[in-house]
Amino acid sequence: MEKAYLEILNSINCVNAVYKELLQNYIKPDYVLYSILEPPLTKTFTPLSVRRLVMLMALAGVLLEGMLLIGVLIATPAGRPTRESRV
Which SS3 state, helix, strand or coil, does residue 33 take? Predict the structure, then answer.
């Protein structure tokens, strides 16, 4: 059992060495393409707080109102004559 475990570790180290060699010669040297023994995520994500969510919703509302205002201004005829002024 110990021999099989050591062979598995040796294989893992060989795979990691091949990837490190590829990364150093062909890709950014600090970037880790693949590793079996390291965790898949190195950054932890925190949940969105209620305060930040409300702030983002208010910002989205202001932006939406601005886009609606611009859309209405573009859609209304400013200098063109209307039906009432033609008659």
Answer: coil
